[in-house]
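Researcher: I'd like a structural prediction for the single chain below. Treat it as a standalone chain; there are no partners to consider.
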Amino acid sequence: MSRVKRGTIKNKSRKNTLAQVKGYRFGRSTKKKMATEAIAHAGNHAFAHRRDKKSNFRRLWNVKINAEVRKYEISYSKFIDMLNKKDIKINRKMLADLAENNPDSFKRIVDTVK
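Model: Treating it as a single chain, here is the predicted structure.
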């Protein structure tokens, strides 16, 4: 059996790994072993933070709705409760957008709920 030299394949693998960590600092951007580890950790954080992003946005929407609703002497929780009792199906994302960009429309919703 003939001898196989893997230099080109190894270099290609290293080049691809280092291309993924371009912009990282210190050895993580130049050393294959550290780069591989950095990629693994980055992947874990990316996966987890994609999930976190959803809860962060929901928190932001709640804050925006609460800020607007307080102008009409209602608390956020009471407002959401009244929406549910009146069977008004509008999600928090839309409510937050209305509160921020269309206060008049939001006021109409609050009046309907009261």
